[in-house]
Amino acid sequence: MHQILVVGDKAAHGEDVTRRLSAFFALEFKDMQTAFEGAPQPHTLIDIDLGNHPALLRLKEWLKGKPENAKIIFLADRASRLQEARAYALGATGIIHRPVDRHALLAKLRDSETALATVGAAQEELPPGVVAATDALQSIFYAGWSGAPVNSTTIQRGSDAIVDQLTAQGLSGWIETVRKHHSQTYQHCLLVTGLAVAFGEHIGLSRWDRQRLSFAGMLHDIGKAQIPLAILEKPGPLDENEMAVMRKHPEYGLDALRTTSDLPAEMLDMVVHHHELLDGSGYPHGLHGSEVSDLVRIMTISDIFGALLERRSYKEPLSGDAAYQILLDMGPKLDRDLVRAFKFASAVDQRSAA
Fold first, then answer.
1. For residue range 6-15, what is the model confidence (pLDDT) as tens digits?
2. Would you state the torsion angle of the CA atoms of residues 299, 125, 350, 205, taken in this order, to the nearest 10 degrees?
3. In what helix (H) or strand (E) does residue 304 lie, and over which residues does it extend?
């Protein structure tokens, strides 16, 4: 019988795990503070809040002391790729979904491969650009959440791969793939990035400029790592209070990047201002006209259009034509010349939206 240390932040969690598993495993439950007084065990199951828990950075340090070949299994909500990314960044070797299932746990305990090789069960089936982009997004969101510097090399690798994938696959294929394989938050970032890169190709930008747009698209929502997951991945429209919290993400993103010295100023500008509108009605600073840079203007259009194309549990994606009409209806809020040039995106094949 497997001996398993269960680490939790709530006694109720430990009781639930014990009730479900005690007939099949030898369990020892400890709260986080008590667990930190010892060392991780060869088989450790962690059931904690993966939001902004004050002890998570200490947990990461504690897990560095795990025995060689230890299995550190985290529980995470089934629909949350961000929880999975956080768990792996903390030191997970595997993830199972709530409610805990003994068969899933046993499979992870027997699995001899590292979890990092199996992030996302079907990842090996995805195009290389999507795989590299997912790796980069995990790195970005972990940095935004933990306060660690972003890894520009990882982001650049993912950005380059997206440019290659868009060249090979086209925008329609990219959108279809992203819709199938990513959570709401990841889906949005990758849709926006793909749209920005395809737009750059459409207007004849150089590969270097398309890579710059790709990098910006990957990075633009880093501040969402500080938004509570209950808001970020809510399966329905946000209420007024939740929207007020969500609107803080551009400033959170700027704060997260202050520790990264090798990012160009234009990227910082894009992160904090990609929700600004030319008529001053945007946020967080209410910029007007020429105060909004060209890169920000492109990312804003891509961001709005991408959100309209997204598949969400409470709404069907709009067609390209319908989404483009909304851009036109926004009038002086957006750059008219760029919106006219963006019309190419309205022809996106919508068969994947069906």
1. 998 877 777 7
2. 40
3. helix 294-309
Would you say domain 3-118 falls under CATH 3.40.50.2300? yes
Closest CA to 253 of 273, 231, 229: 273
Domain boundaries, the chain: 3-118, 124-353
**Are the beta carbons of 275 and 300 closer than 8 angstroms?**
yes
Q: Residue 184's CB: how many other CB atoms inside 10 A? A: 18
| Average confidence score pLDDT of the chain | 85
Quick one: which H or E segment has residue 8? Answer: strand 3-8
Q: Which CATH class is domain 124-353?
A: mainly alpha
Do the Cβ atoms of 352 and 175 come closer than 8 Å? yes
Say what the pLDDT of residue 181 is.
52
Q: What is the mean pLDDT of residues 141-154?
A: 82
282-329 pLDDT, tens digit each: 999 999 999 999 999 999 999 999 999 887 766 788 899 999 999 999
Q: What angle do CA 17, 21, 25 make, to 5 degrees?
A: 125
Mean pLDDT of the region 77-106: 82
Q: Which amino acid is at 54?
A: P
By the 8 A CB rule, do 213 and 199 touch? yes
